[in-house]
Amino acid sequence: EPYPYGYHRSHTTQQAVALLKQQEESSQTEAPGISLAGRIMANRPMGKISFLDLRDGSGKIQLCFYKDRLSEENLELFQDLDIGDIIRVNGRLFRTKSGEPTLEVENFTMLAKSLQPLPEKWHGLSDVDKRYRQRYLDLIANVEAREVFRMRSQIIIVIREFLNQRGFLEVETPVLQPSAGGALARPFTTHHHALDQDFYLRIAPELHLKRLIIGGFDKVYELGRIFRNEGVSTKHNPEFTMLESYEAYADYNDVMSTVEQMVS
């Protein structure tokens, strides 16, 4: 079965590297068996031994396959392994003479077969247009792209924590609106068939947030998607994430102070 329903691994690659370090510090003589899962990123055959790089969402680790120790079924499956395949491996950790954390594979299972070749290893995905249009390839090929996603996620977490700690209430306002308001921008238009009425994707959450202030909330904010039917460039996108907040009994000096503290 090249596409099984699922698999529960015992460790991530990052946890496996940390476990190996713990084993070495405790002078543990026999390494416990662990299981990993990830994508094959490199294959370096050396006679009866092959070294593969396995990568998951946390990092990368080297795999060591002794072909004469694999079962007949695994050996046959090993001949069909390609760069990009996602596999499950069971084995024991050790460190090579060069100091590389490595898992000696005792058995493995195919989790997902790669049907298309991955971008070339050393140069990654350099076509800018393809990087933007096929983000999944960009994420596979470029470590820097994945770090941008992680950094963005952390920034959003910090912004939410900052505002929540200062008494702001996070809210969600309508994305589909009967009229486009809150900013000077051309909206995207759609049609609601049940109501037989045109609606607009919001160009700003401003009006609904102000209504919540009128309704009695002192501090509100929304971090959500905004849509503006305008030009496209590296500095402007028709769909983007915007933070907008409002605070009762505060003036622009208070807002300036809040923003300065948030970004400092």
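[next item in queue]
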Amino acid sequence: MNSHINSLSRRGRRVTVALVAVAASALMLVGCSTSAPAGDTAKNAAPGSIKLGIAYWETRTYAFQLMLKGAQAVASVDPAIDLTSAAPDAGDPSKLLPLFQAMAQTQKAGIVLQTLAADPFFRPVQQITSSGTPVIAIDAPPPADAGVDLFITNDNVALGKMLVDEIIKGIPVDAKGEIVIGTNGPAVPPLIARVEGMKAALAAQRPGVTVVGPVSTFGTSGSSQENYSAWDGIWRQHPTALAYLSPAAQDAVSLGLLQQRNKVKLLAGGMDLEPGALEAVQNGYITALVSPEHWLKGYIATKLLAAHAEKGTAIPKGIWNTGGLVVNAANIAAIVERQANDGALLKALGPVGDDQIANSTKYLK
């Protein structure tokens, strides 16, 4: 087991320090590549002969849907791949675990695993990898010492810093006042790391401000209405804050709606590419989003597993940092077009993923 992955997994269980602080800086994912096309991994294999799977946290959140879409994109252009996906409707390890175990009975060429609770998966993952089925973890850390040698993720601390770098363009260097951080995932390891990045960047670049939070916006069930109500309460308690930030997806949607409904203009930023958040950027309510480019995680992991199954290509070991992308008024139109459908995503991001695979040492730690 790779020592870097062990270290990150143990920290993820404690949830006390910033997670996934990969040494490489987050990369701006733009441009195209001349690498091999997406569908060449298994051109010599029989149709449906490569049995792959992706098990992920839950079906409702767009970020997780994008990871699935990345995996499906590989299978869509490669008839040799038989891809199965499984996730519960709501994040619950007790519901995801049996789906993962059932998948492993048939999809023996490899499984992509995305879970926000690693501990319950230790023994099942260890049993599956010991049987010869490779498992690649994406987004959040795998259970330590369970035979998972590749973890495809982001430098989440760097993503937090990227968001602050954009937001502080609207805050004078000598400013005094509050900046509020709210999160609908106060115990989610990647989000914790992003908050740490935000706080570090604010302390270094705007030392005169007071950071409030992170304040939980989860409520009791994590619903969008509870999230909105939480932000409404935060705003009414801190109406003159210099900025309102979040490391999570739903928060940016709520911050946009809050301004629209109350006819106010706030300096606000968030993460991920929820359709409502993109609309808020288009309408000027959200200054910046930082995208963890989740699609790439599913794409790269699935393509590596396919190449391993068909050609015997070794699966890299370590932590793979896919990078991040700032979304603001300058590029929002292009990003909306990119996210419009599965074909557009593959056309825009497939070459990016292929280039990362072709130059994997640049992204691995």
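[queue empty]
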